[in-house]
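quick one
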Amino acid sequence: MKDGIDQLQADVVVAGSGIGGLTTARTALERGASVLVIEKAPEVGGSAALSGGSAWTAANVDAWLSVQPGGNPAMGQALVANYLDGVNWFAELGLQVEERPDPTPYKFARYVHDFLPDARTFMNDLARSVESAGGTILTNTGLRSIRLGMDGSVCGIEARGRGRTVEIGARAAVLATGGFQASPDLRARYFGRWAHHVIVRGNAYSTGDGFLAALEAGAGTAGPFGRFYGHMIPAPPAKTGVHNFASIKPDFSPYSVFVNLHGQRFDDEFLGDEVTVHAVVHQPEALCFIIFDERVRKLRATGMGEGPGAVDRRMENIRNAGGEILEAPDLESLAAEMARRWGVTPGPLMATLNEHNAAAADDDLTMLSVPRSGGLQPLDSPPFRAIRCLPGATFTYGGAHTNERAQVLDLAGEPIQGLFAAGADVGGLYTRGYTGGLGVGVAYGRIAGREAAALAAA
Ligand SMILES: Cc1cc2nc3c(=O)[nH]c(=O)nc-3n(C[C@H](O)[C@H](O)[C@H](O)COP(=O)(O)OP(=O)(O)OC[C@H]3O[C@@H](n4cnc5c(N)ncnc54)[C@H](O)[C@@H]3O)c2cc1C
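structure w/ flavin-adenine dinucleotide:
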């Protein structure tokens, strides 16, 4: 120990104890590596422990590419193959994981597995499994920088925790810090003018430390930096947080009409609010108004497989959170109320709704001035409703350039020897659509754990 500095040693050091970090750690341990996990927060689990606990991903690479235009097929293939390997391996470890068939067809073929009995318990069990296999987990200890040797390969990291600097010598370092959505600075850099209105829909510690440390170590970047996995969140006065983020998701939004403060449509609602949320960030004050009618309320399924009453349950949850849902007997009255209460410009709003209804009457999507790919239904069943929403970001898609072996690449596209990424810190995987968050931690955690252990043993 140097004065004020703790010095530790491991074959593999992992930054972050969410699903990506703990999967990496447990995998590297079974491959014979000594492993030290550092966690910035006081407890393990990250967003994974706050999540709905439904791990999932596309069932094959074509399904994955159908929502990742321009995606890297090798990265997608690695995701799909290692996801299944990962969930089966969890079961072998004695962790509770159960396959769940989709009750209603999703946009593409996929696998879904529930972490049981709930996400928090599952993550605690995974952490215990790391420790019982000989791994060490240091909480309250955050990655600061990566140390490179003269040959440019990783020789350790520096962290800060409990008022002390911690130097950890290691041949491999794995970044699993969960993305940069909780950093106001990085959000401002990448999300534009209204970034400060974006609600952080995940754990508060993921401020891009892994990404920034990788950049300092010479990593290249891979976008898209303006995109993220998120959902629309009812705006204040609604009180929202990790306790209700999952239950207030407006799953019915693909069948609704989205307008901005100017009363104009701005994106394709049918992509799902997990995608249109990217465009909301760039609307005035980052506000989006979801408009729907009784026909939508009666939908049996919202595309997320909830069955009858799904929309009612969402609306009730939004109201319970204190969210405002305006209701009116006709569209003119709704527009007037939205103008009075929220400042939405009524003239353009009525023009937008009339254009929508004309297109729906002719069942002709090409009549819409802002393209829409489906979900076109007339707004003709009173009462008509509107919810005022802000974008919520769960994890960011851009990050340090990473390949299908979970290796972090330098500016020339060559691996930085000994540096890996897992989970949301993997930059260059998602391009637009969302195909699961936990699954990226499972799959790339498996890959990073194997690769890091092999490198340490070499
Ligand atoms: C409300 C909610 C519901 C969700 N539901 C689902 C769902 O049902 N299915 C699904 O697939 N996904 C879901 N997700 C998304 C999923 O939780 C994430 O995609 C996933 O947890 C990301 O894994 P990760 O390992 O990259 O990050 P995390 O699990 O967030 O772990 C990252 C960890 O790194 C730590 N950290 C940050 N900085 C440092 C540092 N400098 N040094 C050390 N540690 C650091 C963080 O504190 C955190 O513990 C949900 C998320 C939320 C918030």
